[in-house]
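quick one before i forget lol
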Amino acid sequence: MNDDIKFKTLPELYKRILPALKSKKKELKRKGLTYIHEEDIWNFLKEFKWTGSRNLDLGMIVNDIFDINENQLNEYVKEEIMKHHRKISNEEM
């Protein structure tokens, strides 16, 4: 009997692991990292931990969420904020 849970789409997987992402977000909030959101954790892991990975199971994914390198995640989020939200506008007034 095969107990592996298969996901057809990334949104389906994201929805399934959202409770773990929310739990990690709460933990980070208690540590003062209030600006990190669930999607930040997901994007960081997707870009840096799971790139090129095949056959990840649900347990491995959840484990990665809770064992994330918080310093690297923090730097990643800060860089993303700088790239997308904090640009000086040089447009004419």
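fyi The chain has a mean pLDDT of 87.
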